Amino acid sequence: MTNKDEITMNSDKNAYFLSLPEITELSVPPKTILLEEGRIADKLFLIRKGCLRLFFNNEGQDITFQFFFEGDFVASFDSLYKRTPSLFSLESIEPAELSVMKREDFFRNLGQKPVLRQIYEEKIIERFHVYQRLFLSRIKNTPQQRYEELLKEYPSIIQRVPQHYIASYLGITAVSLSRIRNRR
């Protein structure tokens, strides 16, 4: 499958989601907290425009562990499913245009619409795959290698995401990231 085929399939899936009557639209400025760590998730978001990040607080320092861009579905899936407090916060980095579905509408539709269930399962598997790669990368790769992987996957991330969030994501300081960038 080519990237173009993948984009078309994802666009079709996103169009299906957007066609559901329970969808609402939300525009938010940068630095908007959409889900606070410790709260129970009650919404699923589809990013139509913008960039979001997931982060958690570790002894007063916020640690970014994932970025999301146009076409991505975002939620604290564990919290959404189990009704447990979220282990992280969700925040907009850029002005964002989001399509939103409430938890109860989402799970009702999941039971009634096999296409939505298939989309959900694919997104969960995709997220699991991303976390596996991230976990292995943290164990076996140097910060330089992790940075190169990030640029390969998201070439425009440097223009869209502040350096301190990227450094946090890579598990290094902003100064170390600056050194890595200067070596390129």
From TrEMBL:
Pfam families: cNMP_binding
SUPFAM superfamilies: cAMP-binding domain-like
Location of the Cyclic nucleotide-binding domain: 7-127
InterPro entries named in the record: cNMP-bd_dom (IPR000595), cNMP-bd_dom_sf (IPR018490), RmlC-like_jellyroll (IPR014710)
Protein name: Crp/Fnr family transcriptional regulator
Organism the protein comes from: Bacteroides finegoldii
